[in-house]
Structures are given as structure tokens and as C-alpha cells.
Automatic annotation (TrEMBL):
It comes from the Eukaryota. GO terms for biological process: carbohydrate metabolic process. Residues 39-52 have a biased composition (Low complexity). The lineage of its organism: Eukaryota, Viridiplantae, Chlorophyta, core chlorophytes, Trebouxiophyceae. One of its GO terms (molecular function) is glucose-6-phosphate 1-epimerase activity. It holds the Pfam family Aldose_epim. PANTHER family: APOSPORY-ASSOCIATED PROTEIN C-RELATED, GLUCOSE-6-PHOSPHATE 1-EPIMERASE. InterPro entries: Aldose_1/G6P_1-epimerase, Gal_mutarotase_sf_dom, GH-type_carb-bd. It comes from Micractinium conductrix. This is Apospory-associated C. Residues 1-69, 267-303 are annotated as: Disordered. GO terms for cellular component: cytoplasm.
């Protein structure tokens, strides 16, 4: 390689070229790199560093042929540049993934991690700190740098769904360049004083793509796209203005704190006395079942901190004429086997929304209204639904069949929610995932020359079930329990049985829950 030349790698017929300092990075500056990594954020350019990373292929990549030796060498040089310019060992690392395609890995100190391929800007893996893989990567991916990487989290643009362009557009075909990385290095003292977690470093990476001549005939518009992915923990809840004023006032009222502490101590003492009285047999009865249930409850480990995957897509119209598009971010969420866990795999939060059903005819959807509390998938019927104007915030929950759930939020730019399940097209594989998308697909977005659009999706993975709504309190049959040891989570029916046992002995009435 000549001195001063920029390394590039031809992978699968594509040219991976480093963006010139005044070129793509300057163009990407038109889009706004996110500045809200946290209150105590210190965004830093990554230092020169290299690190050994796991190069093992994953998903459907076992049959992928490795690239030629010269391509491997060029790719290695490109990845080394990315690691030195944008990486930080233990937070942001670059490696050759399946098929030799460049891959970035975001590593969170909590133990969560995400993998992002530069081909199509596809997020192919997102693992919780407990080791669970949260995304489903479709079977049969070639990882050849030509076809989209199917599954994970895919970008749909400038077309969501079917239309004159390939389904979900062509950004998923393009090769993206790394233009920025960032993380926050919390000040331990300041974080401790504010009661914040000092482990949330929020590794972040931004990729850039622009007009591709191969698609100019099919879509004759010039554009610039910036895609930012951040791995984080949930933000602390924001206090209302009234709550902030109350807390500020209490700082100058120490007697209020003393009264609260005294009341709390008295309540604790009373509780301990009541427990001691029961233990001494003053009521003359003891329930082994209740004791066992209490012991199991006390032994339950606290839930792991939720993992947050924040994805921001920005589109800049760099043309001299308007351009219109629809778009979406499409997570494929891994589920338990629908053949055995169908009653537990469901959404929550879409009741009463208008729907467009594309399953029968993608070009002529049927208008309807979602009447059920949950969208379910047990009948293994083809589903391709778009929930219209699901809200600026989205706030849709999804249970993957275990005592866990996802929380999808449309933070900005996205207004619709897509739900898809390809049961008719791939029935065997459809037993293992459901697609839940943040979208802007019903009403097109039109950008005038020079205008910028931004859409943000926040996907949070919790390792506990959502708060039970009233109908599940009445009938908890659809509430999942841990498979490895069901005794760790007694069902509501078991709890009621113990209460009934106690009431029968004491001659009391069990309150209805």
C-alpha cells in the first residue's frame, strides 16, 4: 500500500473506502450528531487503540464463503483504521464479521452488547446482560455484501413495505462508513452526589451513506443519511415541576425529614412486632405453604437493569428539488417457540388504533380497528399490520413468551407502528420471532432542498413481565412464568390458594383481587 493512501477493501464486489476528512464527515455534519448522551456526558473522539475481538460468524453464516486473501488484507487495514480512529477497547470494537464484512461491536459495562454491520447498517445482535439474544437473525443470510442482511434491526427507506422499489427500499443494500463514535465517561463523584449510575458509558456509533449511482435510475434524488446507534441504560425518571419544588423546599425543612424518618421507624417496629407475634403462635396457626411462598419471594433475585437500544435515523435532502419518502426501523424480536408458548407471545398498547392490513394484498391494504387488548400470533396466520398514528411516543409493549418484555417508543419523527409475522412465507422460522417496527409509512414525508428529517426509536428490554393490567389480574393464565424453575415465580393462583388456606383456618373472607 502506498504511503499516504487511504485503505479500502472490496468486499463482495463493494468498495469500502474511508471517508475523506473534509468529505463525508463534513457532509455528515449537515445531519446533527446526537448530543444527549446524558447530563454528565463527555463525548470523546476515540484514542488510537487496537483490541482482539471475536471473529466467529453467527446466525446463518456457517455456509458463507470467506473472501479472497487480498480482500481480507484490505479489510483488515480498514478495520484497523476504524479501531484506531473510532474504537475504544471494552466499549467500541471493530472486527471482520461473517463473510469478512466489517462489523462494529458496542459493549456496555453492564454486560449488554450489540453488533452492527456496515453493510446495510444492519444490527444483527443485541444481547442482554443475562446472556439472552434479543434479536432474531433470519436463516440463510449470505453475508456477501450484495443482498441485505435479513433480520436483526433493518432500515426501511425511502420506501416502507412494498412498492416500485425493492421491499423496504435500498438503504439496506448500501455500504455505510463510520464517521463518529462517542461515549460518556461519568464523573464518579458527581454521579454519586446525583444518585446516578456510573456504569452507563453509553457507547455510540454513527454511520453515513449518501447518493448511490446504482440506484439513481430507480430513485433520482440526492440525499445524505446518518444512522446513530447507542447502547445504554434507561434515563432516570424526570420529576414534575411540582415534585422538583417540593424536594427543593424540603432541603430547607429538616424537621420534615425527621418526622418522615420517625414515622418510618415506627412502622417498621410495628411490622416486626406483628411478625414476632405470629411466630410465637398468638394466632394459633402457621401455614407451611405461606411460609414457603414468602421464602421463595424473598429469595428472588432483583431484576437486571434494562438494556436500551437507541436508534436515530437522519435524512438530509442535498438535492435541488423536493424528495418524498416513507421509512421505518424494523426490529425482529426473538421469541419462545410459538408452537408451545403462543398464549404468552403478544403485544400490549395497540387497542383502539386504526390498522392497515397488508397481508392479503400489499398494494391494497384493508382498513380496520384493533379491538383486542393484545395482538397475538398463535394461529400462525400471515400478519402484516400497520397501526396508524399509534402516537408520537408509541409506547407499545411486547412479551416474547417469557417473563420479560420489550418497550417500543417512537420518540421523534415516527408515528406508526408495524407488526409483521411471516407465518405463511416461512412457517418454521416464524415460530421464533415477531417483527415490531417504528415507522412513518401512512403519510409520506416531503423534504424541501436543504431540509433535514430525524426519526428516533428507543427499544428497551426488561427481564421481567410488565405490570399486570386488570384483565390479567382477573385471569392470569396468560402470564408467563420462568421455565427453568417455575417455583421462583408463584402464579397469582398459587398466591390466592395460600390466602384461601389462611382464611379457611381463621374463618375470614379472602378479598377479591
Amino acid at each position: 500500500m502506498q504511503a499516504g493512501a487511504r485503505p479500502s477493501a472490496a468486499v463482495g464486489g463493494a468498495n469500502w473506502a474511508l471517508p475523506p476528512p473534509a468529505g463525508r464527515r463534513a457532509a455528515a455534519a449537515t445531519c446533527q450528531l446526537p448530543q444527549r448522551l446524558g447530563r454528565s456526558t463527555t463525548a470523546r473522539r476515540s484514542p488510537a487503540a487496537t483490541a482482539a475481538v471475536d471473529d466467529a460468524p453467527r446466525g446463518g453464516a456457517d455456509a458463507v464463503q470467506p473472501p479472497p486473501a487480498d480482500v481480507q488484507t484490505a479489510t483488515a487495514e480498514y478495520l484497523q483504521h476504524c479501531q484506531e480512529e473510532y474504537g475504544r477497547p471494552g466499549l467500541i470494537e471493530f472486527s471482520a464479521g461473517a463473510g469478512g464484512l466489517p462489523r462494529a461491536t458496542l459493549l456496555h459495562p453492564s454486560g449488554t452488547r450489540a453488533e452492527l454491520y456496515l453493510h446495510g447498517a444492519a444490527i444483527t445482535s443485541w444481547r442482554h446482560s443475562d446472556g439472552r439474544e434479543l434479536l432474531h437473525l433470519r436463516d440463510g443470510n449470505a453475508f456477501d455484501g450484495q443482498q441485505p442482511i435479513s433480520g436483526g434491526v433493518q432500515i426501511a427507506w425511502p420506501q416502507y413495505g412494498a412498492g416500485p422499489l425493492p421491499t423496504h427500499g435500498f438503504l439496506q443494500y448500501l455500504h455505510w462508513s463510520v464517521v463518529e463514535s462517542a461515549w460518556r465517561e461519568p464523573d464518579a463523584d458527581a454521579a454519586a452526589e446525583a444518585g446516578e449510575d456510573t456504569t452507563d458509558w453509553r457507547p455510540t456509533i454513527s454511520l453515513f451513506a449518501d447518493t448511490d449511482e446504482a440506484w439513481a435510475a430507480a430513485w433520482p434524488h440526492r440525499f445524505e443519511a446518518l444512522y446513530t446507534v447507542c447502547l445504554a441504560q434507561p434515563d432516570p425518571p424526570e420529576l414534575s415541576e411540582v415534585e422538583q419544588l417540593r424536594q427543593e423546599a424540603e432541603q430547607y425543612q429538616p424537621w420534615v425529614k425527621r418526622q418522615a424518618a420517625s414515622a418510618s421507624a415506627a412502622a417498621a417496629a410495628s411490622s416486626r412486632k406483628g411478625a414476632a407475634d405470629d411466630a410465637a403462635g398468638k394466632r394459633g396457626w402457621h401455614s407451611p405453604g405461606a411460609a414457603a411462598m414468602t421464602a421463595r419471594t424473598e429469595e428472588e433475585a432483583p431484576p437486571a437493569t434494562p438494556s436500551v437500544l437507541r436508534c436515530i435515523l437522519q435524512i438530509h435532502n442535498s438535492d435541488d428539488k423536493p424528495l418524498s419518502f416513507t421509512t421505518g426501523l424494523r426490529p425482529h424480536l426473538a421469541t419462545s417457540d410459538l408452537a408451545t408458548h403462543a398464549k404468552f407471545v403478544k403485544t400490549l398498547g395497540l387497542r383502539g388504533k386504526y390498522t392497515l392490513d397488508y397481508a392479503a394484498n400489499p398494494l391494497e391494504p384493508r382498513l380496520g380497528i384493533e379491538e383486542g387488548h393484545n395482538v397475538t400470533f398463535g394461529d400462525m396466520q400471515q400478519q402484516d399490520l400497520l397501526f396508524v398514528d399509534a402516537g408520537a411516543r408509541g409506547d407499545v409493549l411486547f412479551c416474547p413468551g417469557t417473563p420479560a418484555h420489550f418497550h417500543l417508543q417512537n420518540k421523534k419523527g415516527f408515528s406508526d407502528v408495524g407488526v409483521a409475522h411471516p407465518a405463511a412465507v416461512a412457517p418454521a422460522e416464524a415460530r421464533r420471532f415477531v417483527q415490531l417496527a417504528a415507522a412513518r409509512a401512512v403519510r409520506k414525508i416531503t423534504l424541501q432542498p436543504g431540509e433535514l428529517w430525524m426519526g428516533e426509536m428507543v427499544l428497551t428490554a426488561h427481564n421481567q413481565y410488565w405490570d399486570l393490567p386488570p384483565w390479567e389480574l382477573d385471569d392470569p393464565a396468560g402470564v408467563p412464568i420462568p421455565e427453568q424453575n417455575p417455583e421462583q415465580m408463584p402464579t397469582l393462583r398459587a398466591r390466592r390458594a395460600v390466602l384461601a388456606e389462611i382464611a379457611a383456618v381463621q374463618g375470614e373472607t379472602v378479598p377479591q383481587q
